[in-house]
Structures are given as structure tokens and as C-alpha cells.
Sequence to fold (505 residues):
Amino acid sequence: LRQMIPRRTSDPPHVFHWIPFVGSAIEYGTNPVPFFTKNKEKYGDVFTFTMLGREITAALGAKGNNFVLGGKSLDFNAEDAYTHFTTPVFGTDVIYDVPNSIFMQQKKFIKVALSTEKFRAYVGMIEEEVEDFIASDPAFAATQKKSDEWGSFDVVDVMQEITILTASRTLQGKEIRAALDKSFAGLYNDLDGGFTPINFLFPKLPLPSYRKRDAANRKMTEFYTEILRKKLAAGDPDETDVMVSLAEQRYKDGSSLKEHEIAHLMIALLMAGQHTSSATGSWVLLHIARSPDIAQALYDEQVKHFGSPDGQLRDMTYDELRELPVLDSVIRETLRLHPPIHSLMRKVREPVVVPPSLSAPRSKSHQDSVYVVPKGNFVLASPSVSQLDPAVWVNPDAWEPRRWWVSGGAAASAKAAETGDGEVVDYGYGAVSKGTESPYQPFGAGRHRCIGEQFAYLQLGTIIVTMIRNLELKLPHEVPEHNYHTMIIMPKHPRQIQYRRRRAV
Ligand code: HEM
Fold:
């Protein structure tokens, strides 16, 4: 019916759909990138589609990213788009449950709390967790003693475990890490059960999982609050502790964060990093297992930087870890091909004119018009589209870490990182900046840009090289396709990686 109501000529073109209300939900939800590409060809970079009663205006490509993420005004509003989904999980009075001016202060507090000093302490902790995991987890038990034997593990299961173990040992603090072996794991699972696309699309369903989510948030809040009180009462706070750093900071009006705000920020950090990092780590391991030359280049990089005369690899430091071009490129390229978040959304508070350079109307009825995105619509930018744009990237669908270390910031180390055939190829990287008009945006851009990027690189980098130091990996089939039915893009089955313990280091 909606399609029969005449639209204003200033409305962006609308994607045709058969079923009212549902609109393009199934096509978008099942495989968003072909959906976007097909409609981009038809309508240009800006078009609107219906998804379960919501009107969503996609603005694609680097210019679309800039349009959605770059503006200074709050007419494109993040909290209106996300709060119904995030607040029940994170808790009240933080992130999207507060006006943006408060959240921006909270974001600064988190930035201060995630200091380089802490990161230096975290590398060893992560390494230890991964080594303990490989030594004791049932997934690796079968090959414990026989070093020649190949075993296999489900990469997503393993990366989810390792990610939460390492994040809780570092960011979340030792008390949470200890509790993870007991009650905290169950609470985490209940909370996570409320962080799904169903929750995003239908926030008010009377499902048991919603009640579990709410109960888990309450119990976790109590748990964090108790830990915080003990830490502050002890008077000798651990310098690597994020919660204590948060407690030391002040809002502009001089007030400090309340206990429940600190607890809720800690929950938000846990949830923001868990699926994004475990998905990225899974994709990295799948690609490495499928690309023996890159796996070898990664290992050689370890030997070159950390090898010692006795044949052992010495421990890494945070500062050294940041200077490894192969490792850096492997993560960077994986985030290009598999950005965990494919759609960034904002709700439109006031009508916004689309810049003519972006709208380029295709259809006759739109020829003379300037598009205006109506109030009440959502706008959407998609890193997945700009990161695969053939106008920007050479061979965009190929996982090719060399495109970064050959022509990117790590160019000086390109020779050292060659994989043996001496070939140095320019895979096209060009003007990829961190700005809002960049085609490369796995961490978003502008005022809502991710603050977890450095931690994610530290965590992922340490996990990956610790695994590469200890294991040889193999994948007997192609890297799996994307599963878009999860909140964060995950690999479909089969996703078993074969491994063998590395003998001499
Ligand atoms: C925001 C991606 C890890 C905390 C974002 C955004 C993206 C993103 C795309 C922008 C969302 C938007 O504009 O709507 C990622 C990826 C990660 C990662 C790909 C790992 C590979 C982390 C970690 C943390 C974190 C580890 C916490 C320690 C945040 C926070 C925001 C954010 C607090 C700000 C949200 C806002 O300002 O609205 N992240 N993230 N992220 N991320 Fe991450």
C-alpha cells in the first residue's frame, strides 16, 4: 500500500518490494552486499528501502560514508537508532541511553582508561591465556602428546573462548577473569542471548530470552559494583585496572561517574569487543590456514624479530608488536574483506538534503530534483560496500594482505615481508585515510568512531602470533561464506581448521 502513496519528488528513489511492511528485509538480511550492489546499479548511491516498517536510506561508497558519518550536526542521530537494542544489554545512563554530549564525555573517559601503559602490561597476559588455552582446552587435547598428529577445531568456538578469556584478563580485570570459570560465564551467555538481530528488529517481544537478558544485566551490574567497591576500599589500586581509571575521572560539571554507570560501561566494553574481535580473529585464522605463504611470512616475521640463538622465540612487547608489517596487514586486510559490522545506522531527526555530488539521480522522475532524506527515516552507511568497491580496490574480492604492506604505511618493510618469489605487486591502496570520506571504515568514522581499535589490534595481534608460534594450520576447503543472520558477520559452516603442533621453533 505504501508504494501506492505518491512520494515527494525530493524523496530518494525507493526499492520496489512485494510485501508491505516486510519490504526488502529478507533480501537485505540474507545477503546485504549483493542487495546494495544491485540497487546501486539501478538507482545510484542513494536509495531508500523498507525493512519491517522502517524506511532506510542507504548512502553508499566513500561519499555515502562521509554523508552519514561526517556531519557535525545531530540530525543523523545514533542513539535514536540504537538505544532500543543496546540499553537493555549495557544498562541505563551510558552510551546511547544518555544525550550525545554526555556519551562523548564517557567516550573520553574510556579513551583515557585504555592507556598505552596498560596495553604494555596486557601483551604478556594475553600470550599466557592463549598458551594455557592451547595446552588445556578439550579442542586441543587429542593431540596433546603426539606432536606429529593433525587435529581440528571449530574456529568460531575457539576464538569466542579465547577472546572473552583475554578481554576479561586484561580490560575487565582479574576478578572477572576468575569468575569467568564460574558464574560469570552463564550471565554472559544470558546477556549475549539478548544481543541478536531479533532483539534489534523486535525490541518488545515477550520472549524468555528477553527476561534472561534483563536478569543478567541486573546481576552483572551488582557484580561489577561489588568489585569496584572492594578495589576502591583496598586503597592500593592495580594500575592496569580500567574500572579504577573510570572511577578517577570527572564529567565537565565536576561530578564523577556513578557506580552503576561504571558497571554499565564495563558491560558495554565487553559486548562491543567480544563479537567484533572474535569474528575478525576467526576470519584471520581461516585465511592464514588457507594461505600457506602468508602463514609462513607471519612465522618468518616472528623469527626475524624475536628469534634467539637458542632457537626459541622470546616474548613480545607492545611496542614491538606494533612494528610488524605482515601481522598488521593480515588484520587490516581481513577487516577490509570481512568488516564485522556491515551497516552503520542513524535516525533522521530533521530532513537532510543529500549533496548533489552524491545523489546523481538515475531515473526520469528524479532528474531535476535534489534528494532530501525525510525526518523519521534511517540513514545507512556500509563499510562492506566501499571496502569492496572495484573503483578503489584492485581485485577487491581477494584476500591479499600484500596490498597493504607493499603500498601502504608499511612500505619500507615490504622487501622483508616478501613471501619468497621476490614479486612486489601494487594491489591498489591509494588514498585510504582515517577520515570520514575514506572507503576503508571497519571502525566507522566521525564522532561515533570506534575507540577499541588499538585494543583490538593488540588483542588480535597477540592471539594470532601466539597461535602461529605454537601451531601449523591448514584449511582443506575454501574460506567459508558470510553468515549475515548473526549480529556480527560470522563464517558459515564448515569452519573447522586443521592444526598440528609446531615442533622446533
Ligand atoms: C564504535 C567496529 C572493537 C568499543 C564502533 C563502530 C564500528 C566499530 C564500526 C562505529 C559504530 C557506528 O558508527 O554506528 C569495531 C571493530 C572492532 C571493534 C571492527 C574489532 C575488530 C571494539 C572494542 C571496543 C569497542 C574492543 C572496546 C574496548 C566501541 C565503542 C564505540 C565503537 C565504545 C563507540 C560507539 C559510538 O560512539 O557510538 N566500533 N569495534 N569496539 N566501538 Fe568498536
The longest helix spans residues 259-290. Confidence is low (pLDDT under 50) at residues 408-431.
